[in-house]
Amino acid sequence: MSKSAKALEKQDYIIVSFSGGKDSTAMLLRMLELGEKIDEVISCDTYKEFPAMYRHLDKVKVAVESAGIKFTTLRNEKSFDYFMFEFRSEKEHPVGFFKEHPELKGRSWATSKVRWCTKEMKIKVIQKYLRSLKEQYNIIQCVGIAADETLRIGRKGNQEKNKRLPLVEWGWTEADCLKYCYDKGYDWEGLYEIYDRASCWCCPLQSLKSLRNLRLHFPELWNELKEMDAKTWRKFQVNYSVRDLEKRFEFEEERRKRNLPIKDKGFYSELKERLCA
After folding, report:
1. Whose CB among 28, 36, 93, 103 lies 3.0–4.6 Å from 97's, allowing a Cys bridge?
2. Which residues make Cβ contacts (< 8 Å) with residue 152, sequence separation at least 6?
3. CA 11, CA 138: separation in Å to the nearest integer?
4. For 183-187, which contacts have Cβ atoms below 8 Å and span 24 or more sequence positions?
């Protein structure tokens, strides 16, 4: 029998990719509500989700398993901290780099050009799992991309024939997804009242607004972020270490109390002096 004939014999296997965010949650809950066929729900643990997100994932898992559907949590056997503080790859640095810099360990903070965390904690783990199923099944992967996320919809990977975008089919926007989840009693303990997106709390690519909120609402995680930053070699962001950010945020608070602006020339001039002190 030819390879193409064997492929035709494979049974469709419907997988819902579930990150725990508002869009994938709305997609999954609505598919359950509609009684759509789901063979398995897969979730990928990055090791660095908000505690409230882990509790949300557990809550949804109960709903999925109560419907008789398999729920699988995937994770890299090596932790986030291992890759950040211990792992070394000669491929990612010039020859002899680590001989010249033996004190530098781990990949350190991700950058916009080297997003190793997404690759190691999610992409590789999911791809490996799907490969293990493709020998037996024709995988149909349902992905929670909202109808108003036009850039994501248009990406080549999301246009593959084995990908299905239910939210796009239904015309559901990001706002629709959040409202639907709230109406169903899923509120992430207020995460979406603080953040537009509830991704890894330690991400160096998040905005200053998000980092201000982390320091304000989750001081224990902010302290952990400072500890992480102190143990690694790459600067947290191009212009700031975490301690620099703390100085900036403290300075902003001082200025606000004095009814002074925090984005004018005087602010940045004095901030520069404080960071250099």
Report:
1. 93
2. 145, 158
3. 6
4. 184/29, 186/25, 186/29, 186/56, 186/59, 186/60
Please report, as a single letter, which amino acid is at residue 6.
Answer: K
Query: Does 46 map to a domain?
Result: yes
Nearest C-alpha neighbor of 17 from the set 59, 65, 66, 74: 74
Last residue within a domain, chosen from 193, 216, 245: 193
Distance from C-alpha of 225 to C-alpha of 204, rounded to nearest angstrom: 10
Separation CA 199–CA 43 (nearest Å): 14
Q: What is the DSSP letter of 88?
A: -
More confident residue, 35 or 156: 35
pTM above 0.85, yes or no: yes
Residues 10 and 141 in one domain: yes
Structure confidence by residue, pLDDT tens digits, 221-253: 999 999 999 999 999 999 999 999 999 999 999
Same domain? 13 vs 143: yes
Q: Convert 260-271 to b/e letters by CB count within 10 Å (16 or more is b).
A: eebeeeebeeeb
Same domain, 186 and 84: yes
- Phi-psi map region of 87: left, alpha, beta (phi>0 left; psi -120 to 50 alpha): beta
CA distance 175 to 236: 31
CB 87 within 8 A of CB 114: no
Spatial separation of the C-alpha atoms in residues 119 and 23, rounded to whole Å: 21
Parent domain of 161: 3-193
Whether the pLDDT of residue 57 is over 90: the answer is yes
Q: Decide which of 157, 172, 193 is a domain's last residue.
A: 193
